[in-house]
Amino acid sequence: MKDVYNIAVFQGDGIGPEIMQPTVDLLSFLAGRGGYRYDFTDLPAGAAHYAKTGVSLPDTSMKGAREADAILLSAMGLPSVRYPDGTEISPQIDLRKALNLFAGVRPVRIFPGQRTPLNMPDGRTVDFVLIRESTEGLFHTQGRGEVSENEARETLLITRETSELLFDFAFAMARARKEAGRGPGRVTCVDKANVFRAFAFFREIFDAKAKQFPDVASDHAYVDATALWFVQKPWDFDVLVTENMFGDILSDLGAGLMGGLGVAPSADIGRNHAVFQPCHGSAPDIAGQGVANPLAMILSGAMMLEWLGLRHDHAALVADGTHLREAAEGVIASGEVLTGDLGGTATTQEAAAAVTAALSVP
């Protein structure tokens, strides 16, 4: 068990620094109370850095990320700053590929008091996890697609090695959720195997892996049907696992079910490294106004605590991750201190202060 953890911090673009600071403050507050410590190291990257230097992710920043115990990454990218080929600056994707962060973890939770566009039946709650493969799929040729005057091509890649790692991760998560009483212990493979051979291959690997986890149930769903069921019966899901692009789309739909991207955390996890970041973008239109919603970043910090605690057998970190998540969710459920994107009038600092206050209650 460690007592000091080195955290690489990417402040991001737009509202990125505004939501990162209260998250770091909350993590430091918990560490001081729990008898452990963080060394936060700021590392430059992003669209603004690219505009100044011509480099979006410096080698020194990549080195710092590799050496860190965990990586906190705020919203990155600016619509007005692009690479010469027209694509946006996205160092977060570069980090996923370089560090082999194959498992993109997107929790979707709807609890009593939370605002949602769904017509939720009385007594129903939603608590599932979408796991998105984050290094291959249709993102494989990002920035290297073939474009001619009359056609354009991108290559979808699915490999056995990465898929097996992904499915091991998904089944282990479903088992852990079942043991914790948070799900029935079921993994759903989301694909389009009825049309594409690549997804039939993906499903074949999934079915073989399922046999190694006899205590965890498994099933399949086509991605278009899954999008429908997200709206009709999201309470039926436990753990879902899917390809990169499908996961990218479904994760935003999941965020919509929760009331918006402002409350949607995420993690990208590999064998030795992990990045924790909000699902939303950098919102340059409101940057500097002090009204950005910090809750998705704070909830991502809670995910980091849990991951670090489990990785280093540090029970206090795991407990603090739970406390931070429950405090943020309590603020959301109460509806008393919400930022504008959630229908309230609170500032960034007021929302963060409400989380701190919730943590301070015995």
From TrEMBL:
One of its GO terms (biological process) is L-leucine biosynthetic process. It is an enzyme of class 1 (oxidoreductase). InterPro entries: ICDH/IPMDH, IsoCit/isopropylmalate_DH_CS, IsoPropMal-DH-like_dom. Its cofactor is Mn(2+); Mg(2+). Residues 6-355 form the Isopropylmalate dehydrogenase-like domain. Its EC number is 1.1.1.85. One of its GO terms (molecular function) is 3-isopropylmalate dehydrogenase activity. Keywords: Amino-acid biosynthesis, Branched-chain amino acid biosynthesis, Leucine biosynthesis, Magnesium, Manganese, Metal-binding, NAD, Oxidoreductase. It comes from the Bacteria. SMART domains: Iso_dh. PANTHER family: D-MALATE DEHYDROGENASE [DECARBOXYLATING]. Homodimer. Belongs to the isocitrate and isopropylmalate dehydrogenases family. LeuB type 1 subfamily. This is 3-isopropylmalate dehydrogenase. It comes from Roseobacter insulae.
